[in-house]
Amino acid sequence: MSIKKILIVDDQEMIRKLVKMTLAAEDFEVLEAKNGVEALAIAQKKIPDVIILDVMMPGELNGIDVCKQLRRIPVTKEATILMLSAKTQTVDKEEGIYAGATDYLVKPFSPAHLLGKIREHLG
């Protein structure tokens, strides 16, 4: 079985480190991006199986914009996209799912829950 690639997209380095530490015990190739533009470039080049995507990021693209674009790109349209956000309202979750997210998780998050969701979506 090939090693699954996971792209972590978050402007906060500490969140990226926490997610990376959560995934360290598993056999994943972990990629990181600090903004939406970088995420799209990496995703098209490396074709991750799972993309963990923050909603609120500075710059021209937020997580919702990135998610919509990922769903339009042939090599990433089938990827599992897990939105990971501090935005906890039902309307925020619905916006993420409507944009194409596979699932929507809220910060602060349980590392065990995140890992469970990744495993669930990878089968």
TrEMBL record:
Pfam families from the UniProt entry: Response_reg (PF00072)
InterPro entries: Bact_response_regulator, CheY-like_superfamily, Sig_transdc_resp-reg_receiver
UniProt domain Response regulatory: residue ranges: 5-122
Name of this protein: Response regulator
Annotated keywords: Phosphoprotein
Alphabetized PANTHER family for the sequence: RESPONSE REGULATORY DOMAIN-CONTAINING PROTEIN, STRESS RESPONSE REGULATOR PROTEIN 1
Residue numbers of 4-aspartylphosphate PTMs: 54
Zinc-finger keyword on record: no
Record-linked SMART domains: REC (SM00448)
Keyword Phosphoprotein: yes
